Amino acid sequence: MGEKVVAGQFDLSDRQRYRDKLHRCLTGLERLLAEKRFDRPKNLMGLEIELNLAGADGMPRMLNAQVLERIASRDFQTELAMFNLEVNIAPHRLGGRVFDRLDEELRTSLGYADRKAGEVDAGIVMIGILPTLGRDDLVSSNLSDVDRYTLLNDQIVAARGEDFKLDIDGVERLSCTSKSIAPEAACTSVQLHLQVTPDRFADVWNAAQAVAAAQIAVGANSPFLFGRELWRESRPPLFQQSTDTRPPELQAQGVRPRTWFGERWVTSAFDLFEENLRYFPALLPICDDEDPLEVLDRGGIPTLAELVLHNGTIYRWNRPVYGIADGVPHLRVENRVLPAGPTVTDVVANAAFYYGMVRALAEDSRPVWSRLPFEAAAANFDAACKDGIDARLTWPRRGRYGGTAEVDAVTLVRDELLPLAEAGLDAWGIEPADRDLYLGVIEERCRRRVNGATWQAATFHRALDRGLGREAALAATTRRYRELTEQGDPVHTWPVGLPEPVPTA
């Protein structure tokens, strides 16, 4: 979830000093861009997955410190709550058999972590929102014992000045309050990184924004929270509401939330970093000793520590990232759209679909963002979160007449986006057999209208029909989900329902 932060208190001078430093960092970034100091094209991608810990009964286990101690690998890190972990996969060059290698690495890493979790009677569950989470699980006392999380919670709570209101109206309605940001921890996602040159950044970011709804439509995997069936992908509204520093009055004034889709297509990475400073006050005003402009004057590369920290407290679904590797600065687009799971094959298929689409769309001579209003892309995102694979999305019409039309998500994916993804993967130099394997998973989800969310909902209702109460049905669904995840076949092949005999209610 970001850099290490030491807990402390802030006064008025800290915030003013931090704001001044942020502007010096922004000027430093502008100079780096103007002086063309960034890394050459490397076609590098990276992957992070947030995970849940649950027991054999399907209920959450607050044991991440004990599990991480046993895993003893820097590839695994703590996350916001005690039932969360994160696994980081080292960067790979896009090309050849990269997706097959990712599949193997993930299976090895997750299998090892699951065995270690088993030593404390827990297991790894790769899912968007663990269905068995209750309100008593998502409280501040269950946040991980890490200074950054404590401080971030304190600052967001102080900025809001009142309880957080959670109100999600889906298949059922959830309306409740929280005294902390702990409900955010329910949202476990996949983050897909793509290193890009400054000249390509805007095209890649715009492409990623345009296809975010399609990613959600085929990849939704978070239909439940606190025992209620909500949106097919409930993470985005939950994340926004559980980190919302705006009381109702500021929301009514149109103040932007810290978790947002955005409001425009961009022309450079600078646009996004500049928006961060213009719209969002600092939550963690911690200043580094480095003066970025002095470093640049000496011919060095500044860390832009304040800019990086501030960027990490603004939760865009496609986030700009500034980093340094081997003394050379680079830019990345961090795609934060997808939920975790259901299986390794599904995760890799989602990644292949994304990287193929953005490559093809970013190189299109007539970019989709020149034909699709940004407001339509944002509305598409909400529609996909609500309705998942059954969503209807707005997309530019083919042919000379132009304009946009509303189309079923599965039709859009099968007829337009999968061919684009295929062409994009070819441009990356992906092995054709791997291309066909993983894009075939996406195609089959569309053909069967199945993803993780539809399977969870259908299995839950089958359990209710067999006489289980709601809590027992959610627990049984979670246990069955974990069993099928461990078997490894992609979710579109999973049988709906629970195995015999009927579990105890």
From TrEMBL:
Pfam families assigned to the protein according to its UniProt record, in alphabetical order: GCS2 (PF04107)
Substrates-to-products reaction catalysed: L-cysteine + L-glutamate + ATP = gamma-L-glutamyl-L-cysteine + ADP + phosphate + H(+)
SUPFAM superfamilies associated with the record: Glutamine synthetase/guanido kinase
Gene Ontology biological-process annotations: modified amino acid biosynthetic process
GO molecular function, one term: glutamate-cysteine ligase activity
Top-level taxon of the source organism: Bacteria
Name of this protein: Glutamate--cysteine ligase
